[in-house]
């Protein structure tokens, strides 16, 4: 099945919307020659393999509520996020130790 990618949709969004399971993101990525972290182009087509597991409960809910997740972000959107600084912010693996 081919689906149209919406603005800001990720492979995870496509998987949950069209199969009801985020676990299918790997099969969808492979079927389309993509990485699960690739930024997708709105309006392009993605192939959903027919043999993936479909969670009908989730699919029915998304369809009934007309939910079309679009959680992807672009580099431009990341540049709008302020850099976190100060005592309340630490980077794990950069001076942060767990003992």
Rg, Å, rounded: 17 Å
Count of discrete alpha- or pi-helical segments spanning 4 or more residues: 4
Distance between the termini: 50 Å
Mean pLDDT score = 86
Oligomeric state? single chain
Please write the string of helix (H) and strand (E) elements: EHHEHH
Our count of domains comes out at 1
The helix content is: 25-40%
Overall morphology: globular
Largest sheet: 2 strands, antiparallel
Task: Characterise this structure.
By secondary structure, the protein is mainly alpha-helical. The protein has one domain (2-79). The protein contains four helices and two strands. It has a two-stranded antiparallel ribbon with strand order 1-2. It is globular, with a radius of gyration of 17 Å. The termini are far apart. It comes from Chryseobacterium gallinarum. This is LysM domain-containing protein.
Key phrases:
single chain; 99 residues; mainly alpha; LysM domain-containing protein; two-stranded antiparallel ribbon
Condensed summary:
This protein is 31% helix and 6% strand.
Which helices and strands appear, and what pairs or packs with what?
Elements: E1 2-4, H1 11-19, H2 25-31, E2 45-47, H3 56-65, H4 75-79
């Amino acid at each position: 099945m081919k689906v149209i990618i919406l603005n800001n949709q990720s492979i995870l969004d496509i998987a949950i919307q069209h199969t009801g399971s985020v676990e299918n993101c790997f099969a969808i990525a492979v079927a389309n020659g993509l990485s699960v972290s690739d930024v997708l182009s709105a309006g392009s087509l993605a192939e959903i393999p027919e043999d993936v597991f479909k969670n009908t409960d989730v699919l029915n809910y998304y369809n009934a509520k007309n939910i079309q997740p679009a959680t992807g972000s672009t580099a431009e959107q990341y540049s709008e996020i302020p850099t976190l600084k100060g005592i309340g912010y630490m980077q794990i693996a950069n001076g942060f130790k767990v003992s």
